[in-house]
Structures are given as C-alpha cells and as structure tokens.
What we know:
- By secondary structure, the protein is of the alpha+beta class.
- 43% of the residues lie in helices and 21% in strands.
Amino acid sequence: xxxxxxxxxxxxxxxxxxRTLMTDxxxxxxxxxxxxxxxxxxxxxxxxxxxxWDRRTLDISWTTISDTVKRLSRTDWKEFSVAFxxxxxxxxxxxxxxxxxxxxxxxxxxxxSLTILEVRRLLEAIAAxxxxxxxxxxxxxxxxxxxxxxxxxxxxxxxxxxxxxxTGFHEGLMEIAVSKAFSVPLKTVQKAAMLVGDIGxxxxxxxxxxxxxxxxxxxxxxxxxxxxLAQMAENTEEALKEHDGKTAFxxxxxxxxxxxxxxxxxxxxxxxRLSDVTKSxxxxxxxxxxxxxxxxxxxxxxxxALGRDGNxxxxxxxxxxxxxxxDVQKMTEEIPVKLYLFDAIYVDGxxxxxxxxxERRKRxxxxxxxxxxxxxxxxxxxxxxxxxxKEAVDEGHEGLMAKRLDGPYTPGVRGKHWFKIxxxxxxxxxxxxxxxxxxxxxxxxxxxxxxxxxxxxxxEFVRLGKTFxxxxxxxxxxxxxxxxxxxxxxxxxxxxxxPEIVVEVAYNEIQESPRYKCxxxxxxxxxxxxxxxxxxxxxxxxxxxxxxxxxxxxxxxKLNH
Length: 561
Ligand code: AMP
C-alpha cells in the first residue's frame, strides 16, 4: 500500500468530526491492508513511528528535521514561519513549503512513490543510527525520506516524526475502527489492547487470526501496561461515600511511579509513561532481585528520593535520577532512592488484573520480602480517615489514595476505584507554549514561561498564565536548551515552542481575566516542578481549571455571607 493513500486518509480525517464516519473510513482502509502493513499503518495513524511498547526512539530533533527540509526545498525559511503562523501546525507548514517548491517536486516525480513499509523501514533505520556520526546518518536518512515525499506525505511524515498527529482520530476511535474492520467485539479489542499494550499489534492479530487470536492474548512480561489512574476526591468523606462506606486509604507518596517486571534475575523498570528506566535505578533492580519472593512478577510502586537525614527530597532531585544514564553509580550515592510497593498485577503465572484490590494487596504482601508497602489502613470511620490524612501530610507526603476494596486493576482508566485526596488547592499540570528571554542576569535564558491548559474537547492548548518563578538557575539554563530545540517560531525576545514540556504550577488564586481567551488567569503562578513523567496530553484541562475556579468562588461567596 502506498504511503500516499495513508496520507490522503489522514488528510480526510482531519476535516471530519463525525466519529462514525471516521471509524468507518479507517475500518475500510484497514481491511485493504496486507498483514504486515497493519501494525505500521495503525501506529503511524496514531502519530507513532513504532508500536507503543517498542523501546526504540527516533532520537531526532526538530532542528535536524527542519534543516533537512530547508536544504531540500532550498526555500527561504520565512515561508515556513508564515505558514506556521497561519495554520498553527508544523506538519501543515511543511506541506506548504513543499507545495511552493515546484522545481524540486518535478525531479522526484521520476522516483517511485513511497510505500507504508518503506516509510517504516526508513524510520527504523533512523532509530537504529546511534553513536559516532549518528546525527549525519539520521540527516541522510531523513533526507531520503523527504526527498521522495509529496507535499501531503511530507506533512504526515513530519507529524509521525514529531509525534503530533492532531487529526482528532485518537486511540479510542482506533479501537472502534479495528472492531468494525475485523468484526470483533469492541470489548475484546479493548481488553487485548490493554494486555499487549498496543492497538496496532491487536489489529495485526485480528487480521491474521481473528477473534480466536485475540482470545489467546495475555499479559506479557517486559511489556509495560498502562498504569491505573485515580480521580480527585474533595476529601476523605467523599471517597468513603463513593466506596460504599469502607475503603483502603494509603499514603500518597510524592515520588515517581514505576512498574517493575521480573523474570528470575532479569528485572526491568518502566516509568509512568512506560519508558524503560532500568539503567537509572540500579539499586531498585538490586533490591527487587534480592527481596521479591516470586520467580515472575509485574509489580507497581513509587520511588522517592531521600536526603542525607533520611527525609524525602523534593521531586526535581528524583527526576535528575530518571534522566541520568551516565555516572549512575555516583548519582545513586548522591541521591539515594527508596522504593515502596503498592500493587501486584501479575505473580507467577496468575494475572491479577481482574482480582479485587484486597487480593492483589495480599499477594503483594506475601512476595514483597523486606521491601515496604505504602502505609495503609482499611476503615469506614471518617475520623480515622481524617487522622490518617493528617499524619500523611505531617510526614511530608502529598495526601492519601483511597482504593475500592473490591476494585479490579483497570489499566489506563481514571475511574472511581481509586481516588486521590490532597489537603490543599491542588496544583495544576500545565504546558509551556512559549517563553521569553529575561532581563539583566537572565538575559541569556528563556526564563519567563507562558503556561497553557489543554482544552479537553478540542485538544488545543489554552493560555492562562505566565511565570518566571520557581526554577533554579541550573534548571533555567537546561530549560532554555530544551525550549530552543522545540522552538517553532522566533519573535525576537519571544519564542513560541511546541507544546511538549509539562510543569506543575502552584498559584494562589484563579482570577477572572479579560487578558486570556479563556477568561481566567492564574494569580502568583510559580513552577513547583518539571513533570518529566507527564506528556502534554496528560496536562490538566481548561475544564478542570474552570471547575476549580467555580469551587473557589463558592467558598468565597460563603465567606462573604
Ligand atoms: P497524579 O499523578 O496526581 O494523578 O496521582 C497519582 C499518582 O500518585 C500515581 O501515578 C503514583 O505515582 C502516585 N502514588 C503515590 N502513592 C501512591 C499509592 N499509594 N498508590 C497509588 N499511587 C500512588
């Protein structure tokens, strides 16, 4: 199948909003694919070069991509900036550059057109280029990819490479399309996708073996599954009520979540975003190897960083550990981490996904050896719950989790089986969409950050504040480097960037404000940490901000009366 056909489909999808029409079109397309084209096509349609569980990354910067396109198109890059300003979309801007560049296109007409499998192979080659001279090799491969692309193909190749599809056709819709294409019940497709961790692979199994193939699918060690998520509860009382009067409260530790996969001595650790962080956490690997009393397991826990005095260190120190690939040993001495376990998803042949929380916790307890579990009480007594929350906060933790006693493990779902309870107005996770150079000492750094929340309905990023507070000089310097790499437009002192970096922001109030389109602005915003563990699609929504705004208004109104 030609890549052009996939690009045309994506182009059509981006103009349609009707979901049934979208899923019908994709289903028809999937039916036409050959077996080995199914997974690559599905991955690409969702803006991924490879399946979700795949550890390979392209490791190519936007600068490299844009330099290649500039060189190929021999255009004045102003064209790109104008197109970007008009469309607000990198892929569309690249398409415009390609369209304006007719001379070059005539040359490539003599070459054969790209197929889906060829695009995949070139992406694989880009990912495989590592070590000395890899940048040049990546550039050359990128060049050969773009030099054979039509404008619309260039648009979608760019989108796949930068991982930003924006057609509105998300994973949930893909599950529906797969179910329609291969006449398999949606629930079966969803369950299989959860187990193998990739809808593309599920689609490929459907194509090859139909519903029978799917029934054989089970949890796989070393393939991380999406973590179960929690909803926010106002307080312990609400959690108790939602859980029919009795629940398990656990300390909510302020660290980083990890998923541990173990098969005998082989241990691998995945971050919340399912990337492999094994190399950064040797002491966790070691303790799991030594303590865990089962041959094979998938466990979950939270790691926190410890200071010299044994107290938890702020979150950003922990994130330094996750980033570190060199000098790990030195870092383990500087910032030791401690592991607390809180769930068991698989133990020695038994998938515990559908087992109730109490059973999973029991199995965990049995095999955890000397690794501590998160502190927990099971209670129906509101007063005990409040005391427990106070204890947790006094000990410097974030608050509590409330877990439904008979609740199964629901990967990727933010349902009512788990609640998180924090004491104060919760901070927001926002995305940096632009930054400005500072003054005086900070004139070399992008030090003033424009913050945006995600619009849960349209997927757009909506600005609602600006801050220059919270980062250390060192963090600011690093942030400047990172922002420059994802810059899409330079307007003198202001740099517009791809919405990619998520920061946790504390603030004193949400005000009504005509300054921003959403009508709200954060007052006294300050960055409390860089959320390396979250992607922009996980940032807080503008709808959530509005909820908090309304709630705070309620309280004030009460105070005034
Ligand atoms: P949030 O990231 O704010 O959505 O809160 C959920 C996160 O709390 C999880 O992803 C874990 O990283 C963390 N966490 C801390 N303690 C626990 C616990 N006892 N059980 C589950 N998650 C926990």
